[in-house]
Amino acid sequence: MEKLNMYGLSHLFMTVFLHNLSTFMVQPAITDVTMAALCPGQDECSIAIYLTGFQQAMIGMGTLVMMPILGDLSDKYGRKAILTLPMTLMIIPLGILAYSRTKTFFYVYYVFKIIINMICDGCVPCLALAYVADNVPEGRRSSAFGVLSGIGSSAFVCGTVAARFLSAAQTFQVSTFVAVLGAVYMQIFLRDSVADENQLYTPIISQGKPPIAKINGKSKANMPLLKALSSLRDITSFLNSSKIITQASIVAFFSNLADVGLHGSMMYYLKARFHFDKNHFADLMIISGIAGTVSQLFLMPIFAPTLGEARLLSIGLFFHCVHMFIYSIAWSSWVPYAAAMFSILFVFSQPCIRSIVSKQVDPREQGRAQGCISGICSIAHIVSPLAFSPLTALFLSEKAPFNFPGFSIMCIGIASMVSFVQSMMLRVVPSILS
After folding, report:
1. For 261-296, how does the pLDDT look when each residue is reduced to its tens digit (9 = 90+)?
2. Rounded to whole angstroms, what are the CA distances from 232 to 37, 69, 249, 375, 376?
3. What is the DSSP string of 306-334?
4. I need a surface site. Which of 168, 193, 290, 337 has the fewest CB within 10 A?
5. TM segments (predicted)?
């Protein structure tokens, strides 16, 4: 396949930008919408924390099964064909809250959000990474992954700025429109991508015999759509394929365990501790997003080739730990804003993990590999709410065993520290093609 430069991936970048813009635009508002529907007029709401945790766990269970399957299918049928599913379905829950945010409609949104995200959550970034791996030479892949992540961060900034100046109703309406625009843009402009254009991929509706693909060096006939490989077996096989992949998977698990825990707890913590609202959350996200965007678009392409993904991963995870520990002991409302600046360094971690994994597998297994890593991350989406949501609810209530509202954030930081220690063992990352 002819490899592309960064400009050749412009339609993919725009597709990812529009998808992330739609997704991130509603994040500053969703905490207020949730609490207004469930606990109107209150700054502390245990049921909202538990429902958020349950939602994360259910989504994690779904994506644990679906991500390896969708990644594997994208290797067979093309990235664009599989991307159509999440780009279309994820419009539905946004449209529900765009119409109304009453308690009844919130529960309807909640149910649809769980069902659809069990199938689609994380699918767009996972397949976008596989698309980049298809089209970018290995030597420039870590930088390309960083740019892709930077595009996501820039969408995060733009979406958060928009949410800062829009009402809750307008936020969800604009988000729905952008989601529709993203799906239409992808269908019109994005060309499909497979690992090898000399071997035509099988159309998803084809009744003919699919071609033979290699999995872990052995020839294996592609299965029909309804007989995709078992996800858990795929993940187990993937974990055992090499020591480096095993180590990278452990890093990915604990890193995402911390990320999911922080995402599910931080806003409720800040609301209870400092009475933050939608605008405060938006300001905080803008600071973090701008720092992360600058880092991924400009610093990572410089540091990745010189330091290597493994060292850059360790640097990112170290500052991820520091960032969480500072949040946990925040003594004033300005401290979270200062801690958000650490995103200029900790955003390196996710692109580095994905790049390390990408270089360990055959070019025609990129979708499967990224899907398996996403599946491993989904296990963290199951475990993290079960571990941290009750802890957060307990220490933000009057029944806390001792006065430390940020104790759950401190525990989340310890999970991040485990990933940092494991990342220190990743020193040499040989390529499968070398």
Report:
1. 888 788 778 888 888 877 787 788 788 888 888 888
2. 37, 10, 14, 9, 10
3. HH-HHHHHHHHHHHHHHHHHHHHT--STT
4. 337
5. 46-70, 82-100, 106-132, 144-166, 172-190, 250-269, 281-300, 312-331, 337-357, 369-396, 402-421
